[in-house]
Design brief:
The structure holds 2 protein chains of 2 kinds. Chain A is of the alpha/beta class. Chain A has a single domain, classed as Glutaconate Coenzyme A-transferase. Chain A has helices at 9-12, 34-43, 63-68, 84-91, 102-114, 177-180, and strands at 5-6, 21-24, 49-52, 72-77, 96-99, 118-121, 135-138, 141-147, 151-162, 167-168, 184-195, 214-217. In chain A, strands 1, 2, 3, 4, 5, 9, 10, 11 and 12 form a 9-stranded mixed β-sheet that branches. A 3-stranded antiparallel β-sheet of chain A has the order 6-8-7. Chain A is globular. By secondary structure, chain B is α/β, with parallel strands linked by helices. Chain B has a domain at 3-34 and 99-210: Glutaconate Coenzyme A-transferase. Helix content of chain B is 16%, strand content 25%. Chain B is built from 4 helices and 13 strands. Chain B has a 10-stranded mixed β-sheet with strand order 4-3-2-1-5-8-10-11-12-13. Chain B has a 3-stranded mixed β-sheet with strand order 7-6-9, with no helix packed on it. The radius of gyration of chain B is 17 Å and the shape is globular. The chains are: A alpha/beta, B alpha/beta. The A-B interface holds A 27-28, 30-31, 54, 77-82, 84, 86-88, 90-91, 97, 99-107, 109-110, 121-124, 126-129, 159, 169-179, 206 and B 47-51, 64-68, 72, 77, 83-87, 89-91, 93-94, 118, 123-132, 135-136, 162-166.
Chain lengths: 219, 219
């Protein structure tokens, strides 16, 4: 799809349904789409969500608020530890946790957006995180089969977008955002600044607009 | 562990790094290493959240909320730096393009197995990039104290904590000594400060070969 609409954060997150898988960009809170997350917390009642995000926010910040509302059923992350409340919720059996090495997490999302079903990686072989995964020896090295990750909705943050939905990221706020933008049925991009078409140099576009369905301006 | 001990370990580990090497530094003692690198060291720092060419900590007026390291602390970017997404960053790591990973550990075995991500029964649920780094980096240097806070040896016969990877470690630097893994065999190559062989034997559970050398690391 190439038709990108610019709407409010509240309207944008109304596409999230109970039971959905939602990808959320950011490394900690850097590059996290905080206006979209806040809208999900305040203006949506979708629950039973699977959240795919490197971290589950921080206590009372970002996804940490969604966690406090009890609306997360499962988290797929590399590092729950940055939110002690998320670790406590996992230990209490309130949410299900799938812990994935960070590089495998990133590559699985990339694969999801690129039409790749899965890939073999040596990372995690012979460890607890190999449990239940197919192992195959390639060139003498044990590898694990990792399946691609997809989502119903991706919430991403870009420092700048044009009105078509081309995205430009800033510094280390890029992280998982360009990957997640490719791997969901619906991608909602929050942008720090929205500029007219033609103002982004095509050489600088990191996420081409065909991946982006909806644009939201940061408050 | 005193700051002075941590600094001594970091200072010795810094001597392992050679001009032109691309190095990823973990959280804790490794993060002190930049303080012991000369401005002209030629070492290039990579951070897995998406930057090659990490510079010093920013002065107050240089603080940029979009620019952090993997410990989520503010950093700067040096001239010649490059930003990239998380999949590209871990492709560098897994693909063997990072020369050295320096990281902390809970335990290292005499055959170079490393445990540094999980403590059963503790509120820790995160692996981050640790597994990717120890598998992918060409050289893995562990910086840690010789004993745990409970006084137990950390260089062990077999790791009791969940493994990060098997046979991945090349060098161990503690406050007492330097060990090197040579063909899967542990060698004590250097005593540090006033440490004696007896001191090291007392706190090392793994068997090791004494191969003391006069000089410091190759530069």
């Amino acid at each position: 799809m190439t038709a990108t609409t610019t709407i409010s954060a509240e309207e944008a997150v109304s596409v999230v349904r109970s039971g959905d898988t939602v990808m959320v960009g950011g490394f900690g809170l850097v590059g996290a789409p905080l206006a979209l997350i806040d809208a999900l917390v305040e203006a949506s009642d979708a629950t039973d969500l699977t959240i795919v995000s490197n971290n589950i926010g921080e206590p009372g910040r970002g996804l940490g608020n969604l966690l406090r509302q009890g609306r997360i059923r499962r988290g797929i992350s590399s590092y729950f530890t940055s939110n002690p409340e998320a670790v406590a919720a996992v230990n209490a059996g309130e949410i299900e946790a799938t812990l994935v090495p960070q590089g495998t997490f990133a590559e699985a999302i990339r694969a999801g957006g690129a039409g790749i079903g899965g890939f073999y990686t040596p990372v995690g072989a012979g460890t607890e995180l190999a449990t239940g995964k197919e192992e195959r020896v390639i060139d003498g090295v044990p590898h694990l089969l990792e399946q691609a990750i997809h989502a119903d909705v991706a919430l991403v943050y870009a420092a700048r977008a044009d009105t078509l939905g081309n995205l430009w990221y800033r510094r280390t706020a890029r992280n998982f955002n360009p990957l997640m933008a490719t791997a969901a049925r619906v991608t909602i991009a929050e942008a720090g600044e929205i500029v007219p078409v033609g103002e982004l140099d095509p050489e600088d576009v990191v996420t081409p607009h065909l991946y982006v369905d909806t644009l939201v301006a940061s408050a | 562990m005193s700051d002075e001990v941590k600094a001594r370990i970091a200072a010795r580990a810094a001597e392992e790094l050679r001009p032109g090497e691309v190095v990823n530094l973990g959280i804790g003692i490794p993060n002190l290493i930049p303080g012991f690198l000369d401005a002209d060291s030629g070492v290039v720092l990579h951070t897995e959240n998406g930057l090659l060419g990490v510079g010093p900590r920013p002065a107050g007026d240089e603080l940029d909320p979009d620019l952090i390291d993997a410990a989520k602390r503010p950093i700067t970017a040096l001239p010649g730096a490059a930003y990239f997404d998380s999949a590209a960053s871990f492709a560098m790591i897994r693909g063997g393009h990072i020369d050295v990973a320096v990281l902390g550990a809970l335990e290292v075995s005499g055959t170079g197995d490393i445990a540094n991500w999980a403590v059963p029964g503790k509120d820790v649920l995160g692996v981050g990039g640790a597994m990717d780094l120890v598998v992918g980096a060409k050289r893995v240097i562990v910086t840690m104290t010789a004993t745990s806070s409970r006084g137990e040896p950390k260089v062990v016969a077999d790791c009791s904590y969940p493994l990060t990877a098997a046979g991945a470690v090349d060098v161990i630097v503690t406050e007492l000594s330097v060990f090197r893994l040579v063909d899967g065999e542990l060698h004590l190559t250097e005593l540090l400060g006033d440490a004696t062989l007896d001191d090291v034997e007392e706190v090392t559970e793994a068997p090791f070969v004494v191969s003391l050398v006069e000089s410091h690391a190759p530069r």
